Amino acid sequence: MDKKEIMFFLLARAKDGLISLCDIYDCMKETGLSFYDIEECAMESGLLPQRYERNRGILSISEQLKLLRSSVAIVGCGGLGGRVSELLARIGIGLLVCIDHDYFVEQNLNRQFFCNIHTLGRPKAIVLAEEIPKINPASRVIPKIEPFSIDSGTEIFSGVDVVIDALDSFKTRSELAASCYILRLPLVHGAIAGWFGQVGIQAENSIKFLKLFLSAQGKKEIQHDIGTPSFMPAVISAVQVAETVKILLKRNIGDFDKLFFVDLLSLSLESGNI
């Protein structure tokens, strides 16, 4: 089939402007094309994949297509990074670069989305690469089982639109912020500890987060002392993903170089300059 024939095939199957998973798989069998390619063709034809029906009120088909064609790097695939990756896949991001050199261990079971008794001992990035296509077959995952460093940033972030900080080390965070500044990439920062969390966005040409992380060099992040309950990664990762989507779609982007603080113990929200 050529592109016009694929479009005709999908249009003939669509109901109320929606195309189902079954129809996409049938088209894959007919054409030998990937799920991604057929879904891209569907949205180019003005059809929306049925699983995005609940997105209709906030995202247009052209915006959904933009997300499909977007690439996001997640540095750290644990409590925050795993949740971020899952939510990005569900909203429709087409390519995720998942970077983490660590393995799932028993103490991850209280909060890390992809950690279960069957994934213990396995590399986090590899598990995400296996599980995310089960959530969204159009989402491709490139796993990187290596510690992040400023030296690896240029290669890892090639073609990436947004970078997400889901780390737990000030040293690595500073290298990440420096890499994003050098490559002129927006960085969506997130951190959690106990009942508390924070989110911020470093602009492409800013070094404010870099300075913030450098000033904390040598300090231990407090989550190592007070822990991280199950609900905090869910809250902060959701805000990080919302900010990422807004950046990609250029819609109502929040203030750059500010921190947004969440205190679930007193149920308070605050923001402030860095």
Level-1 CATH class name of the largest domain: Alpha Beta
Radius of gyration: 19 Å
Give the mean pLDDT: 94
Q: How many structural domains?
A: 2
What would the CATH topology of the largest domain be? Rossmann fold
CATH superfamily of the largest domain: NAD(P)-binding Rossmann-like Domain
Strand content: 15-25%
Give the helices and strands as they follow along the chain: HEHHEHEHEHEHEHEEHHHEE
Task: Supply the helix-strand structural class.
Answer: alpha/beta
**Biggest sheet features:** 8 strands, mixed
**CATH architecture assignment name of the largest domain:** 3-Layer(aba) Sandwich
SS element count, helices: 11
Gross morphology is: globular
The helix content, as a percent range, equals 40-55%
Widest beta sheet: strand line-up = 5-4-3-6-7-8-9-10
Work out the number of β strands. Answer: 10
Distance between the termini: 55 Å
Unreliable segments (pLDDT under 50, ≥5 consecutive)?
Answer: none
A few lines on this structure:
The protein has 11 helices and 10 strands. With about 270 residues, the chain is of the alpha/beta class.
